[in-house]
Specification:
Its main location: other. It is found in: Bacterial flagellum. The N and C termini lie far apart (69 Å). By secondary structure, the protein is mostly helical. Helix content is 67%, strand content 0%.
Amino acid sequence: MPAISTNTAANSAVRYLNINSMQETSALSKLSSGSRITSASDDAAGLAISTRISS
């Protein structure tokens, strides 16, 4: 009877690579926009205040 095994080290490595990739994407979007707040998830209250000030 064959046994099914998983490579937990590889699964963990892929998980951390995905987390780092998402963090890198977020950091690069903030850098490229030149703004501290790029979306409501960054700072909801700050976004509301900045949109009122700019309008």
